Amino acid sequence: MPNPDDDRTGARIAAHRKRAGLTQQGLAQRIPYSYSLLHQVEAGHKKASPQLVAAVARTLGIPVTALTGHPVHHLRPDHVAALVQPIREALDLYDLPTDCFMPASTTPDLAAAADALCRDVRAARLQQAAAALPSLLTELTVICRERPTTESWRALASACRSAHDVAVKLGYPDLASLALERMGWAAEGAGDAVLAAIRQYRRALAYRNRGARHAIALSMVAEGHRLLGQAEPGLERDAVTGQLHLGAAVIAARANDAARVEDHLGQAREIARQTGEAGRVHWLSFGPANVGVHTVFARLELRQFDAAYAAAKAVRPPRGWATSRRAAHLVDTARAEMETGRTDAAIASLGAARRLAPQQTRFHPRARETVRGLLHLRRQSPDALSRMAAWIGA
């Protein structure tokens, strides 16, 4: 007996397929799934997996929600594991036989899809990104092994970086580490020093927890700077250099090394004056606003709470700033407000972060810490805080 929801998803796939002028056979040839499976999904006899839905949506150029029929922002913790496992499986294909996988997309199409995936992550559409990752990673891995080009390797490195970002935001550090290993493999295949440096930046941030060996993380940052010495001068190299300094500032703050924090923030600030807002450079959001955001975080870690609050209020989000960056800043602003006695403002900032990026905020460890802190401070929790605590699991 087919599930009614699956039946409706299959019917939507059929309707959009017909609208695009494709037969079932024609659509099956464009996605990495068989005609038989597509036929059964459209008939409602088999469940449409998130990966199949994402592949169909990407092929037809429509949002995933056009096929699912419901918004994707209500991501519950019990759904996360089902989204994450296919990503892990796709990343594990890099050294396994790929005879059964037949990429149907061209390298330029896949590169465009990898770029669109970065936009989804920046927009905090985590479920949509997670659903699209397995098929994209699979096709790019096969193409890089069978018909490698610099463009395909770069697209694969980008997709692996997105897999890392999704895994971090959903709380899967082991998967994030695996994704960075594959990103390194792809960056080497592309011969791209900038991508390799970005990987070192991401690796270093995995050591930002208290108790970690921060010297190792700072060595990774230094290796990133060394790799950038091989890159062509210009905006791209400058932006990544600045981002490496911001990463080092975060790590130094965790290590309670105030002098090193100031040194790296100062260097990043000087580079940002020259680059301006360079958010489109490898989707790093580097620029004066991002320097301000990292300054807030560093001040919080150093327990300079008044300075953190002042820095938070001084940040001026640029036009088109990534939703994920804006929401993360609101979470840190809430912490600064809580630590300076502005509890009502902190609750409001957390609420704004939730409205802006619900998936990201729900799994954000600093959001959970701040909610717990507010519950401790308030003898009587207002309804907004009680609802937030129940939603976030604090």
Automatic annotation (TrEMBL):
InterPro entries in the cross-refs: Cro/C1-type_HTH (IPR001387), Lambda_DNA-bd_dom_sf (IPR010982)
Cited CDD domains: HTH_XRE (cd00093)
Pfam families linked: HTH_31 (PF13560)
GO molecular function: DNA binding
Domain annotation HTH cro/C1-type: ranges: 13-67
Protein name per Swiss-Prot or TrEMBL: XRE family transcriptional regulator
